[in-house]
Specification:
Blueprint lengths: L1 E7 L6 H10 L2 H9 L3 H20 L10 E2 L5 E2 L6 E7 L2 E7 L3 E7 L14 H9 L2 H22 L13 E2 L2 E2 L2 E4 L2 E10 L2 E7 L9 E2 L2 H4 L3
Parallel strand pairs: 1-12
Antiparallel strand pairs: 1-5, 2-3, 4-5, 6-11, 7-8, 9-10, 10-11
Helix pairs in contact: 1-3, 2-3
């Protein structure tokens, strides 16, 4: 079981909705939100918290939300590993990937900016493919690769602290269906919508067909 949930964080620009969300997401996330300087960052973090809270209601075990702990590397987890989840946000959207097996996810807004130096991001084969592409193709390739690698390192619990150029996720222009990582075979899946790239990795070859878009009204019913 993997659920992929998404919310447009701009809804929380409404001060009333922001305060309702803040009251619902729990003390740990409230504390994190208060440390953020930019209002957009606060809204995105709150949206991610609402999505995760909703996920526990979906599996009829909302009390687990309050049992979440955070590892020294910053990865949130449940001590008894009843469920696994990964959060990400970019631009105006927050996402939550929720599963009964370990997962990782990442979303990025596709921007015009592309890195000039790629040796710390790409393997040699990926770099060769990237530089062989037309300029109009490079953006899609880069953000698909980046979100896949980010999702893998989130699965590992290391994020971007793990060197991206140590492992490959691309087979030519396409994302690999699976990769070996830490003696486990990980499966990869990418999605595109509007001007965003989103990728998941999982220990199971099972992915949702679509992204569930949820509004603040739905997320704050309970």
């Amino acid at each position: 079981m993997i659920e992929l949930l998404l919310m447009e964080a701009d809804e929380l620009k409404d001060p009333v909705l922001f305060e309702r969300a803040r009251d619902l997401v729990g003390e740990a996330r409230r504390s994190h939100v208060e440390k953020l300087r930019k209002n957009d960052s606060k809204n995105l973090s709150l949206a991610a918290g609402l999505l995760l809270r909703y996920a526990f209601f979906m599996v009829r075990n909302p009390k687990l939300y309050d049992q979440i702990q955070v590892s020294p590397s910053g990865k949130p987890f449940l001590p008894n590993q009843e469920y696994y989840f990964s959060l990400s946000h970019s631009g105006q959207y927050a996402i939550c990937c929720f599963s009964d097996s370990p997962v990782g996810c990442d979303i990025e807004k596709i921007r015009e900016y592309l890195p000039r130096f790629t040796k710390k991001i790409f393997t040699a084969d990926e770099e060769a493919t990237y530089h062989s592409l037309l300029d109009v193709e490079k953006g899609m390739f880069f953000y698909q690769l980046w979100t896949c690698k980010e999702s893998v390192t989130k699965w590992m619990g290391k994020g971007i602290l793990h060197p991206f150029h140590f492992f490959s996720v691309m087979d030519g222009k396409k994302v690999k269906m699976s990769i070996p990582m830490e003696e486990i075979n990980l499966y990869l899946k990418s999605y595109f919508f509007e001007n965003y790239a989103l990728s998941l990795c999982s220990e199971r070859d099972e992915f949702p067909r679509e992204i569930k878009r949820l509004t603040s009204e739905i997320l704050m019913k309970n």
